[in-house]
Amino acid sequence: MSGSLPFYQKHHRHYDRGYRSRETQSAISQYQQSSSSYSAHSKSSSKGLAATFSALDESRLSPLPKRAKPTYLAMDKENQIIGYVVPIFRGSQEYASGLSDTEEARLKESSGYMARRGLFTSGVEMERSERSEHTSRRTVMRESAERISLTKRIHENEEYHKRMNEDNLMHTPEFVIKPRSHTVWEKQCVRLHCTVSGWPEPRVVWYKNNVSIDPMSDPGKYKVESKYNVHSLEINRCDFDDTAQYRVSAMNSKGELSAFASVVVKRFKGEFEEDLPTPSQHKANSEPDGWVCEYGITFETHIVDKFDVSFGREGETMSLGCTVIIYPSLQRYKPEIEWYRDDKLLTPSKWVQTHWSGERATLTLTHLNKEDEGLYTVRVITKSGYESHSAYVFVRDSDAEVEGAPAAPLDVVCHEANKDYIIISWKQPAVDGGSPIMGYFVDRCEVGTTHWIQCNDTPVKFARFPVTGLVEGRSYSFRVRAVNKAGMSHPSRASLPAAAMDPSDRARKGTSAPWTGQIIVTEEEPSEGVVPSKPCDLTITEATRNYVVLSWKPPSEKGEGAMYYVEKCIVGTDSWQRVNTEIPVKSPRFALFDLAEGKAYMFRVRACNSAGVGEPSEHTEATTVGDKLDIPSAPGRVVPTRNTDTSIVVSWEASKNAKELVGYYIEASLAGKNVWEPCNNKPVKGTRFICHGLTTGETYVFRVRAVNAAGLSECSQESEAIEVKAAIASPAPPFGICVLECVRDSMVLAWKQPAFIGGADITGYFVDYREVNGGVPGKWHEANIKSVSERAYRVSDLKENVNYQFQVRAANMAGVGIPSVPSEVFKCEEWTIAVPGPPHDLQALEVRKTSLVLLWKPPVYQGRDEVNGYYVDIKEAEADFEAWRGVNEKACPNRYLKVSNLKEGETYVFRVRAQNKAGVSKPSEPTEPVLAVTKPGTKDMVVDVDDDGVISLIFECDSLTPDSQFIWSKNYEEMTDTSRMTIETKGGKSRAIFNNPDVEDIGIYSCLVSHTDGSSGSYTLTEEGLKELLKISHDHKFPIIPLKTELAVELQEKGKVRFWLQAEKITANGKVEYVFNDNVVSQGEKYKMNFDKNTGVIEMVMESLGDQDEGTYTFQLQDGKAKNQSSLVLIGDVFQKLKKESEFQRKEWIRKQGPHFVEYMSYEVTSECIVRLKCKVGNMKKESVALWYKDGREVQANEKLDFSEGWLHLEIAQISKKDAGVYEVIVKDDRGKDTSTLNLTDQGFKDLMNEVFRVIANSSTPLKIQSTEEGIRLYTFVNYYNDELHVTWHYKDAPISFSDRIKSGVVGEQLWLQITEPTEKDKGKYAIEFFDGKGGLQRTVELSGQAFDDAYAEFQRLKAAAIAERNRARVAGGLPDVVTIQEGKALNLTCNISGDPVPEVTWLKNEREMVSDDHYILKFESGKFASFTISQVNTADSGKYSILVKNKYGTESGEFTVSVFIPDEANPPVVKRK
């Protein structure tokens, strides 16, 4: 020891006087005084210990190797007291030579004992030593003599320390100096120190996160030292996992005390700082991080196929496993595998089994209980470090034996085991079964047996119970059951065995008490014949409504075989009652039962032995029987936060003033349902928990309950509702910026979507740009203030011939992400190339192991001509640039292409080139690498026809996220028109339903699921496939028992009415119900039923019909799942007709003597559309007559009666509305008469006309195409046209809306549709539909292809001819044939000219062209009027004149003759007009 600082404190780098409390300073002061006095005693003894020590000051001044003056103080460099130590007491060399080894050891032990005892000398002794500094020299000498005398007595009696009563010196451990927290860098060492006092000498254990540290488990990592009451823990080469809370626990038979310190290890990522120790160059070169000298390698550990959050149920077996890959792999090397639950190391047991196969680590929980719930961690330790993985395991309650019974309690633990009782504690379950738990029953089972015995007769509510009546020395296991009004729960998992014996007895038997270490009990020599004194320190350690536990200290004088009686007294009385009257207790503790709840008691204890019963102890304070521990208050505000798509993080405010809190239970319910389910079945300590196993997309609310031994608190307030979906973050930066078009002052950019979108849809993009001059970039500028949704954007207001760089940022709900890497430098100059720009935004869908579908967007820059096709290139992702090869030889007209013949497992990239007339463009930016593999869980689109015959396409996806949506497309263009299809999505299945499937629905249907890894599929619907689906649909729409005939009625002899139908096939299990007007009728006098299952004929016969029998008759058939029914409505005229027919049949035997109708009047329509009324008669003779009537008026039939065939006819030609009416025919003779009536009004007339229309429709000729000068005419002929005939013209299966351009009409028997000025849009299928009240009839014609071209060419020819005829030059009259005029007169002729364009007008005389002059005045005005004027006629003007008009469409002339006569001639002038 050198200087004033002991050797073990020199290394205490972080020692600080600030850690000393006032109590510590006081203890140091006492120790200093006692040490000084003991040093004086040593000097006065000739053969004592005086020669052993020398003064401290002498040791500093003397060069001789003398021993220092004994001191028990630790001082720093400034001589400030910073602690104390207990030195090693050694005798001098001279003294030691005269003693044996045993005597020397006893002397050392005595000296140490006195030194320790001096620390606890009385206050009087300490005050006396303090006053000695101020008293006289004589007083000091006297006191020194007294102390020397005391020291001599110690050395003279070697066995003195055995006879002394150590009880006065024993005390619990105390930390004189507590360990200090440290913050260090990785690979540094750290040492924790503490100084502990206590007697007996405490046993010190170090813990890391409440797990004891075993230095032998990891040699070289930890070093634990204990010297001279100074204890240290050294952690070598700290790593990040050494960050933890460390606890040092000091224990002895008087108690236990702990102190805490934290170690924080920082991970250094930069250069070494100046104040950090720099590792040596040799070490850095020879032992890199993780380097294993033994093998000469560094192990790399990877954990794959990791176990995930797991859910189990009580009683099941669960295995957790993961694959461990260690590189390099050495056969002789085996890593260390450790499993933890809630940071506690698991060891193999009957509940837990571990296995290591060489590459896979497995943990098997053989029989799940709620105690097994928690966070499981696997740690793979190699010589280079370790890797770990963690996941939570949830254990659900097993089904209760009785419905409504509570779940089983958990965590049954034994406390304070002694020979009189063992206290059992447990945790309440989270599920009470729907009614409050009334209490708990505790069962015990002696170790080695299987017989369980119930320990309490009535249930206890407090989760802590002392079990008495145990056999001393035997070990027991315990379990607990909960009970409510519905019944009893399953028992909990049994506790660990506990022995019913005192700790002192356990020590005598050689056992080690786990909480105090080895307890050594020193036997005292019994005192005979002494009545024990009062017990002391009587206290109530536990008090509930069911029991009270007392403990006390034995009396100072207890004599031989001391035992105790416990007495109680109700407050307010002086009556003390002995509780244990028969058997006194041996242990200084006792549990009292059967106390009246609510009453106040006092307790006291008497000690007794063979000499008698001693005085009672001091009584306790008044104690009211009841639970002293209150149920905790409800937790505070509950806040749920999104975590993943199946979990929510729930945090809450802790319960206020909660005592002995065990933890919290969290419950969840679907919002609005109020059906609560536990999220955890094992209480959690913190105020934050991750609730797993929730349904994606559902909305939940949460609440929390606190729990302690007294019970569960009230529920907290419900949290706000939260939808389960993954938390969102801002997206990653886009990439792949390229230029799609460039003009003088703007550029169109494109980029690729970020690989990570942050869990939410990208709402837009922001583009920045900057100039680059001479390779020096300038300042960034915003190109758009408002985000753009497309991945292409035109940046405007740029400078021509200037270089620019661009960057793009993506934004979603969480915010704007970081910008992309700046693009290449692009020059802003106008593109003038003839070929188009590159396509962009390539997307790979429907990726399978041998195929995929590639989509792209067209180029922004078209070139000189429009794009007419695309080429797709492909290459392996790792191949060189020269490996690009084409996929399609012919240009693809679509913006999608299915790429087949891929190699499974190969990774490919694609690019697309556009083509126009000028050539092929540059290729687009390549796609990201695409792996040709069918991902697990991938499903193809399927077509389905349900039981109702509805045809639909179905696509399923198992990897949905909360934001996922099914996006349907036709021919890879998103469908927006819902008239053709209806989309229904539920969960992971989306269905596209065809509303009215027909040829318009033929195409490629695809579905893409957003927010997934590209889940998509497609289905190609062909015409043949559609026909097959329609056939299947029809079969599914009618899942009925097929009928040969519907329910019909017929009349039998004597007017019997037979209702019957026949099923095609029916089994022996077939059933029939006969229903009349919604009432089931049965066999009786009125109804006779028969069901022949062999033929399928079902009939019901009625004797006659009355007015009450008017209504609806129904036969309801059922044969297994197949059903059918057929109804017959007999009301109104139909019923009356049937009734009359029935009556007719009844009278038939009478009527057989007279004329009668065999078949009543009906009608038929001939092919010439003549309506023929007919009826068949019988039993006629020559005298019989037939009379026809319409609306009561007789109608003369054109034909003569001919009864040879028995038919009567009445023909109606060209039927119209005026022919509607009630027709009647009467046959009669002297034997009687009969009447037949046919109502051809209202519906009857409509039915008749529909039949006429049907005949007309069937007589129609196929639609033909005719070209006219106005356009194209479609027409058909019918045999007869009726004004009431309703026809509809269709174009592409849709009714045509008529306009001035498209008209329809009728000319005679021709029905036509005129298309004026047809265009390409008019191509397609046309149809005329004749309405006949039923299905109708259609005639169709395909106006497309060659038919359209021919008709259109003929139309153009006729149109041109018509235009030419209409616009050619014409002379419209006004010129006479001959004009005779007198000489000298003026002649003026005018004619009208027409033509477009305006014709050229030429006047001819005698076939020679004339020129206008003063004599001949030729005019052409307004393009319409041509005039011929001769101002003064002479004979030379006689001749043949003509006018010639001409334009591009033709020429026409008009001629006239002018004859000039002399006035002497007698003939007057003549003008002959044409």
Question: In short, what is this structure?
Answer:
It contains 15 helices and 104 strands. By secondary structure, the chain is mainly β.
Layout: helices, strands, pairs:
Layout: H1 7-10, H2 22-44, H3 56-61, E1 73-75, E2 81-84, H4 93-96, H5 101-119, H6 123-131, H7 137-156, H8 160-163, E3 171-177, E4 182-185, E5 190-199, E6 203-208, E7 211-212, E8 222-227, E9 230-235, E10 244-252, E11 255-266, H9 281-286, E12 291-292, E13 297-298, E14 300-304, E15 310-313, E16 318-327, E17 336-341, E18 344-345, E19 352-356, E20 360-365, E21 374-382, E22 385-396, E23 410-415, E24 421-427, E25 439-446, E26 453-454, E27 464-468, E28 475-484, E29 487-488, E30 498-499, H10 503-508, E31 536-543, E32 548-553, E33 563-570, E34 576-578, E35 589-592, E36 600-609, E37 612-616, E38 623-624, E39 638-644, E40 647-652, E41 661-670, E42 677-678, E43 688-691, E44 699-708, E45 711-712, E46 722-723, E47 735-742, E48 747-752, E49 764-773, E50 776-777, E51 781-782, E52 792-795, E53 803-812, E54 815-816, E55 826-827, E56 840-845, E57 852-857, E58 869-876, E59 885-886, E60 896-899, E61 907-916, E62 919-920, E63 930-931, E64 942-945, E65 951-956, E66 966-970, E67 973-974, E68 981-986, E69 989-994, E70 1003-1009, ...
Parallel strand pairs: 4-11, 15-22, 96-103
Antiparallel strand pairs: 1-2, 3-5, 5-9, 6-7, 6-10, 8-9, 10-11, 12-13, 14-16, 16-20, 17-18, 17-21, 19-20, 21-22, 23-24, 24-27, 25-26, 25-28, 28-29, 28-30, 31-32, 32-35, 33-34, 33-36, 36-37, 36-38, 39-40, 40-43, 41-42, 41-44, 44-45, 44-46, 47-48, 48-52, 49-50, 49-51, 49-53, 53-54, 53-55, 56-57, ...
Helix pairs in contact: 2-7
